[in-house]
Write a structure and sequence with these properties.
- The structure holds 5 protein chains of 5 kinds.
- Chain A is mainly alpha-helical.
- In chain A, 76% of the residues lie in helices and 1% in strands.
- Chain A contains 19 helices and 2 strands.
- Chain B contains 22 helices and 2 strands.
- Chain B has a two-stranded antiparallel ribbon with strand order 1-2.
- In chain B, 65% of the residues are buried.
- Chain D is mainly alpha-helical.
- Chain D is 75% helix and 0% strand.
- Chain D contains 7 helices and no strands.
- Classes of the chains: A mainly alpha, B mainly alpha, C mainly alpha, D mainly alpha, E mainly alpha.
Amino acid sequence: MISSQFDAIIPILCVTLAGLVVLLAEAFRGRDEKMPIGGLAIIGLVGAGAASILLWNRNATSFGVVTADNFSLFVNLILVAVGILTVIFSSQTLERDNIPAGDYYAIMLFAIVGMMLMGQATDLLVIFLALETMSIAVYVLTGIRREQQQSTEAAFKYFLLGAFASAFFLYGVAFLFGVTGSTNLDRIGSVIAAQSMSGNPMILLGVGLLIVGFAFKVAAVPFHMWSPDAYEGAPAVVTGFMSTGVKAAAVAAFVRVFLSSLEPMIADWAPVLWAIAAATMILGTVVGVAQTSLKRMLAYSSIAHGGYILAGLVAGNDVGKAAILFYLAAYALTNLGAFGVIALLGTRERANDDLRDYAGLFHSHPALAVLMTFFLLSLGGFPPTAGFIAKWYVFSAAIGSGYYGLAIIGVLSSVVSVFFYLRIVVMMFMTERDARPVPAPITGVAMAGLVLSLIGVLYLGVLPSAVIDFAQASISTIF
Amino acid sequence: MNGLPLLSIAILLPIIGSALLLFVSNRDGSKNALVRNLTLAISLVTFGVTLLLWAGFDPSAGAPAFQFVERHAWIPAFGIDYYVGIDGLSLMLLVLTGFLTPLALLTSWDSIKKHVKEFSIFMLLLEASMLGVFSALDIFLFYIFWDFVLIPMYFLIGIWGYDQRIYAAVKFILYTMAGSVLMLVAIIGLSWMHQSATGEYSFDLLKLYELSIPAGTQYWFFLAFTIAFIIKVPLFPFHTWLPDAHVQAPTPGSVILAGVMLKMGGYGLIRLAFPLFPEAALYFAPLLATLAVIAIVYGALVAMVQPDMKKLVAYSSVSHMGFVVLGIAAMNVQGVQGASYQMLAHGVTTGGLFCIVGMLSDRRHTRQIGEFGGLKTVMPRLTAVMLILTLSSIGLPGMNGFIGEFLIMLGAFKWDPRFAVVAALGVILSAVYMLWMFQRVFYGKITNSHNAGLRDLSFREWAIVGPLAAVSIGMGVAPNVFLKPMEPAIQRIVDRVQAHQPLVVDLASRKPQASSLAAVAGEVSSSFAKASEDKR
Amino acid sequence: MLALIPLLPFAGFLVNAGVGRRLPKAVTGGLACAVMVISFLLAVMQVWSLAAMPPESRQINQTLFTWITAGDFSIDLALRLDALSAVMVLVITGIGSLIHIYSTSYMHEETDADFGRFFSYLNLFCFFMLMLVLGSNVLVMFVGWEGVGLCSYLLIGFYYEKKSASDAAKKAFVVNRIGDFAFILGALMLVVTFNSLDFTTIALAVKAMPVEVTFGTLSLITLLLFIGATGKSAQIPLYVWLPDAMEGPTPVSALIHAATMVTAGVYMIGRNAVLFEHAPITLTIVAVVGASTALMAGTIGLVQNDIKRVLAYSTVSQLGYMFLAMGMGAFGAGIFHLMTHAFFKACLFLGAGAVIHALHGEQDIRKMGGLKKHIPITYWTFLTASVAIAGVPGLAGFFSKDEILFETFLHGHQILWGVGVLTSLLTATYMFRLVHLTFHGEERFAHPRTPAPQHLSTPAPQHSHGVHLHDAPAPMAFALIVLAIGSILAGYVGVPHALGGHNNLGAWLEPAFQATNCGQPVTTGELAGIAIEECLPGEEAGAEDHAALELSLMAVSSLVAFAGIGLATFLWLKRKDIPAQMATQFSGVHRLLLNKYYVDEVYDATIVQPIKVVSQEGLWRGFDVKIVDGAVNGAGYFVSGVSIVLRLLQNGSVKTYAASIFAGAVAILAFYLWR
Amino acid sequence: MGSDALLFYLFAGAAVLGALLVVTQKNPVYSVLALIASFFGLSGLYVLLEAPFVAVVQIIIYAGAIMVLFLFTVMLLNVPREDATEWDQTHPLYRPMAVRIGGALALLLALELGWALSRTAGLGGGVADEHPAVSSVAELGRVLFTDYMFAFEVTSILIIVAMVGAVVLAKKREE
Amino acid sequence: MSIGHYLVLSGLLFSIGAAGVFLRRNLITLLLSVEIMLNAVNLAFVAFGRQLGIVDGQIITFFVMTVAAAEAAVGLALVIGLFRHRESLNPEAFTSLKW
C-alpha cells in the first residue's frame, strides 16, 4: 500500500466513515424499516482492524501529531474487538430497550474514533480533543435511555465530573505548554530530558494535573467515584463498552505520555501512581464485597482492575508495558463477556442485575451460567483463563522493578475480589431459583458474541504466548 | 512403552473424558448410568496408565532423577514450558490419585443423584489437575495446576455438599487461595532472580534448585511457599477450613480431599519449599516441627470429642498430617520417607474411612455418632472393614499407618528426640478416639430403631472398601514395594537440603520487613525517599 | 519350617474369619484346634532339633523378607527360635491347643457365626503371640506385641453388645497403648543407639559396654521398655485393665490374661536380659514394682467375690513375682515361674470356667459353695492348681516361686523377700478362700431349675433345665486334667540343686540370656559352657552355703504356704463369722480393698475426665471454634465491615464525588510541593 | 505603576468579581450574566496580552453564543431559585458542609498554585519582555490550518458528536 | 505585567470555578463553574503564548472554546433531561444511584 501522510489515520478514518454512513443510513431509514445498521458498523470496525494490521511495523505518522506505531495499533485492535462485540450484544438489546440504532451506533463509533485517537495521538492537545470526543460520546451513550432517570442521572454525573476532571487535565497541559513551549510529546520529552525538570514546580504541577485527568478516565482512586454510578446507570452493553474501551484508550494515552515524554521524571510520578494503584486495588475489591447489584459489583471490580493495570505502569519496565497491553486485551474480552451476559438477561422494564436475579440461573440458562462463570473466573484471575496470565504478567512486572509490596497488595486484593465473584457463582449454581420473569431467549448472534469472547478468554489463558510476543513487539518500537 | 508420552496421557485422559461428557445431553438425568459408567471407565484407564508409569519406572539409584520427562515450550518469552516428569515420590502420589479416583466415583453412585454429568466432569477435571500438580516440573505450570484444583473442588462442595456447603466451599477456596497467592509472588520473584543471575527467565524447577538465593530473600520466599503448603496440609493453626470442607463435602469429595488434595501440601514442602530454600528451611524446621507436634496432639484431642463422625475423621487427618510435616521437618531419609509413606497410607486409610462414613450417612442421613450404636449386629461386614481401617488409622503394626508413623518418629528422634516424644503421644490418643468412636457406633445393643434395618455392604460397596482395606494391610506388610521407588528421590532431596547450613537471622536485618505490610510501608517510604533525592 | 508355627494359626484365622460364619461349629472348631495342635507338634520338632545343637549356638533363624528400609535403617521380618523362645513357643502352642479344645465345648452355645468369630480371633491371637516370641528383632516383636493387644481387645469385647465388655476392651487397648508409647520410644532409642533392632546384635553391642551404675542411656531405654511391659503385663501403674478384661469369655482369660499374653512383658525383659543387666537401676525399679504389684494385687484378691476377678488379681500378683525375679536378674527363675504359672493359672481359669459353665453363668462365689460333690473333676483339678499356686512343696508353684524368693534374698533384698513371702501367704489364703467358698461348705447357688441370671456375660445355655449340675464335658475335662498334671509336674524341669536337682530349665535358658548369672551356680560345665568361665571362683565356692540358705528359705516358704491354707480354712470354713466381723470392724480397709484402692476412680478423675473436658470445652468449643476459626471468619467479617463503611462514601451526591476528585488533585500537588 | 498595570488590575478585578458573583448568586440568571461580565474582563486581559482575535472570539462566540445558550436553558427551565431537597437536610454531608469542604479545597488549591509559582524561577519578568507579540490573524490562521490542521479536523468530529448527542438526548422519541 | 500576575490570576479563577462546583445547588451554575475553570486555563494558555512569543497559545484557546461549547451543548441537554424527570435542578435531587 502506497505510503502517504494519511496512513497513520486510516483506521480512524475507517471508523469515522462508518460512523457517518450509519448516521446517514439512520437519517434515510424509513419508519420501522429494518436495516442492518449494525452490519455497517462492523464493516467499518473490521476495516479499521485490517488497516491496523496492515500498518503493523510501519511506524507511520501523520501531521506530526498522529502515529501508528505498534503500540497504538495493538490498542486499536483491542478497541476494534471491543467495538465489534459491543455491536453484537447491542443487536439484541437496542430493539428491546427502544434505542435509535443509527444514533447509537454512530455515537459509539465516534467514541471509538476518540479512543483510537487517544492511543495514536502524540500531541497533548490532540489527546485532549480525542479524550473529549470519546468522553462526550460516552456521556451520551450513558444517558441514551432518557426515559430512565437513572440513565440520565448517571450520564450527568459522569459528564459533570468528566468536565471537571478534564479542566484539571487541560490546566496541566497548560503548564507543560508554558514550560516547554509546546504540546507535542516528543518536544516536551526532549526539553525535559535536556534540562532536569523535576525541580521545576510548574512542570510538577503539570504532571500532577495530568495524573488527575488520566486517573479520572482510568477510574483510579480517589478519582473513581463516578464509575460505579455511571456503570450502574448506563445500559449494560454501554457499561461493558466504556468499562473496557474507555479504560483501554485512557491507559494507552496514560502510558504513552508517562512512559515516553515524562519517563525522565519517573522518580517523581512513580510514588504517586504507586499510592494510587495500591488504593485503587484495595478499595475496588473491598467495596465490591458489599455490592448486591451485579453491574455495580463489576464496576468496582473494574476499578480494581484499573489498579492492577496501574501497577504495571508503576513498574515502568518493558515487561510492565507489554503486561499492560496484554492485560487490556484480556480484561476487555472478559469484561465485555460478563456485561454481555448481564445485558442479555435484562428486560426492558428491569435490568435484572440484582444478585438475587441470578439465583438458579444454571437451571434456567445453563449455557449463560457456564459462560458467566468462565468470565468471572477470568476476572478473579484463575487459571486457565486470560485473567490469570494477565495478573501474573503485571505482578511479574511490578516484582521485576522490586515493587513486592504492590504485588502483595495486588494478589491479596484479588483474593478478596474472588469472594464477590464467587457470590455470583454461588447464586447461579448453588441456589434454587425463585420465581423471576425469565428474560427473552438469547439470539444466536448474541450467543455467538459470548462464545467468541469466551474463546478469546481461553485462548489468552491457555496459549498466551503468541499475544505476549505480540505485545512485546508492540512496545519494542517505541519508548 | 516409554515412546508414548504416558505422563501427558495420564493428565489429558480425564480432561478429554470430561470434554466427551459435555456432549452427553443429560438434562433430565436419563443418561446417568451412561455418564457414570463412562466416567468410571475413564478413571480406570487413567489408573491403568499410572500403573504403566510405575511399571516403566526405573527405581534404581543410578537411574535419572526424573523419568517420563516431557518438555514443550509454552511461553518462551518467560522460559515457561509445559515440563513434566516424575521421580519416585511423584510416581507414588500419581498412583494414589489414580487409585482413589475410581473408588471415589463409585461412592458417588449412591450419594450423587442430581447433575450427575456435571459432577463427573468436575471429578475428572479434579483428577487431571491433581495429576498435573504431582508431575509438573515447571513451577509456573505447577502453580497453574495447584490453583486450578480449587475450582472443581469448590463446585463439588458447593453444589453437591450438605446444608452448610456454601459457607464451607467459599471458606475452602478463599482460605487456600489466600495462602497460595503469596506463593505466586515468590514464584515470580524466583524467575526474576534467575533472570538477573543468568539473563534468561526460567521457571524450570531443576534450574531454580541451582539458584543461590540471598538469605533475606530465602527467609520470605520460604515463608510464602510454606504458608501455601501448610494451609493445604493443613497444619495447625491453619486447619480450620478442613473440618468444614470435609463435613460439608459429598463423600467422593471428602475422599479426594482427604486422600489426595492434602497430600499436595506435603508434596509441595518436599518438592519445592525445602530444596528451593534449604537454609531458610533448616532455619524454620524447628518451628514447623513444633506446629506439627501441636497438630498431632491437638488434632487428636479435638477429634476425640467430636460428635460428628466426619468431623472426627477430619480432625484425625489434622493429627495424621501433623506427622507428615514432622517427618519433613526432620529432613533425614527416615523422616521424609516416613512422611511420604504416611501420605500414601493416610490417603488410603482416611479415604476408606470417609467412604464408610459416607455409606452410613447415605443409609441414615446423619453422621452423629450418638445416632448409631450396635451396628455390628446388623452390618458385620461393614464393621469388619471399618475395624481394619480403624486399626490402620491408629497405626497398628502390620498396617500401613504404622510404617509411616514409625519412620517419621525415627527420623524425628534422630533429629530432635523431644519432637518424637510428643509425637508418640499421638499413638495413644489415636487409639482413644478411633476406638471410642468404633465402640459407640458399632458395639453395644441397637438402641435406635432406625439402625435395626440397615443393610450390610452391597457388592459395589465391597468393590469400594475392599481394595482400600486390602491395600492398607498390604502396605503394612510389604512397605518396601512403595518405599523402594521413593528412596532415591528422597535421598536426593535430603542430600540437597542437608548440604546447607541453616540461615542465621539477626533481628536487625529482619526488622524492616517484619511483615508484608511493613514491607509495603518500607517500600513506599523508600520510593518516596528515592524520589525526593532524585529531586535534588 | 519355623515360619509355619505362627502361619498355621494364621491360616486358621483366615479361613474362620472368611467363611467361618457359614461353617458348622464342628468344622470351625476342629480346624482351629487342628492348626494349633499341628503347630504344637511342629514346635516340638523344632525345639528337639534345637536341643540337638551345642548350647551356645542354640538358634534357628529364618528371615522371611526385608520389611522396612529407609536410608541406613533396615528391618527384616525375621524369626528366631532359641532356648528362651522355645519355652514360650511350647507354652503357647501347648496350652493354646488345650484351651482351644476346651473352648470347643465351652463356647458351644454360641451361634455358628459367633463361634467361628471366636475361634478366628483365638487363632489370630496365637499367630501374633508366636510372632511376638519368635520375632528376632524389636519391631517384629512389636508387631506381635500390638497384635495380641488387638486380639485381647477383640476377645474381651467378644460380647460386644454388653457395654461393660466393650468398655473393658477399649480400656485394655488404650492402657496397653500407654505402655506402647514408652515401648516405641525405647525402640527408637535402641535404633539410634545401636542402629539395629536385632536382639542378638544389641546384646553383643551392649556386652561390650560397661554396666551403668548411674542413670544413663541404657537405663532410660530399659526403663521405657519396662513401662511398655507394665502395660502388657498389668503391673503398677498400668494393671487396671486386667481385672476388667475378665469380661471376655473364660477361655480367653485363661489363654490371654493368664497363660500367655500378659507374660509378654516378662518375656521381653528376658529377651533383653543383657540390656537390662547393664542397667541395674532399672532392674531395681523392676523388682520394686514387681514386688509391690504382687503384694497389692494379693491384698485385693483377698476380698473379691467374683471368681474370675480373684483369679485375675492373683494373676497380677504372680506376674509381680515374675518381675521381681527379673528385677533380681534371675531371668531363669522368672521364666520358670512364667511357665509353671501358665499351667496352674490356665488350669484355674478353665476350672472357674467349668464352674461358671455349670452354674450357667454364675460368677459370684458368695452364690456358690458345696460344688465339690456336683463337679468332681473340676473340683480336683482346681484344687491341684490351687495347691500348686499356693506353693505347697512338690508342686510346680513351689519350685518356681521358691527360686524367686531365694534369688531375692540372695541379692540381699530382704525387704523385697519379706514382701514376697507375705504375698505367698496371701496367695495361699485367697486361693483357698476361693476353693472353700466355691466347692466346700453349704450350697448357696441358685438351683438350676430357676433360670440363670441374665445380667451375666455368657448367654444362658439352652439345656439349663437339667436335673443336676453337669460336670465339665469331655473336651473341657481333658484340658483340665492335662493342665492339672502339668501344674504338678511342670516344676520338675527346674528342681534346684539344693534338692539335688539340676535346674535343667535354668541351664537350658542360660545361653539365651547371653550373660552369666553367678547368683545361680551351675555345676555341670558342659551344660552351661560360657557360664563357668565368667563365674568368679569365689562365688562358685559359695554355692554350698547357698544351698543351705536355700533349704532354710524353702522351709520358710512352705510353712507360709501351709499357714495360708490353714488360715483360709479356719476363716472361711470353720469360723465364717470372723471375716464378716473383720469386714465390719475394718470396714474402711475392707472397702478400700473391695474397691481395689479406688485406682480406677483416681485415674478417671485425674486423667481421663480432665482430658475430655479440656478437649471438649477448652480446645474444641473454645480454642478451635472461637479463637482459631474465629480469627479466620473474623478476617472475612472485617473485610465486609470495612466494605460496608467504605461504600457509604459513595453517597450518590455528585458534589461529594467532585470533592474526592478535587481532594485527590490537591493531595497530589501537595505531595509535589511539600515532599 | 503604568497604565497597562492599571488596566490589568481593572480587568482582572472584573474577571474575578464576575467569577465570584457566578458562584455566589442564588439565581442562575444572575450567575450567567455575571459570567458574561467576567468574560468581558478576560477579553480585556487578552487585549493586554496582545491577542485581539482571541479577545474578540471570547466576546462573540463565548459570551455571545455559548452563554446565550445557557441563558436560554435557564429561561426554558425557569427555576429562578435553588430549592433544597430532603437530601440537603438529612445527609451528613449537607450543604454547608459541602461548601466548607469545597471552599477549603479551593483555598488550598489556590495556595498551592500560588506557592508553586512563587517558587518558579523566571516568572518575574514582564510578559512582553522576551519575545515580540504574534497577533496577526493571518499568521494565526496559517498556523491553525497547517500545524493544527488535524486537531481542527478532530474538533469537527467532536462537534458532530456533541450535536448528535444533544439531539439524541433531547429530541422527542417515538415510543 | 509579569507572566506571574497572569498565572496567579488564572489560578485564582480556576480555584473560584472549582469552588463553584460545591457552593451552588443548581446544575446550571455547576456547568458555569466548569466554564470558569476552562477560561482560567485559556488565560494561562494565552499568557504563556505571549511570553514565549508564539501563536500556539491563542490557537489552543480556540480548541478549548470549541470543547467548552460541545460540553455546554451536551451538558445542557442532560440538564433538561434531568429536569424532565424530577422538576428540579438541585444536584442532590439526583442521588438514586449510590453505594
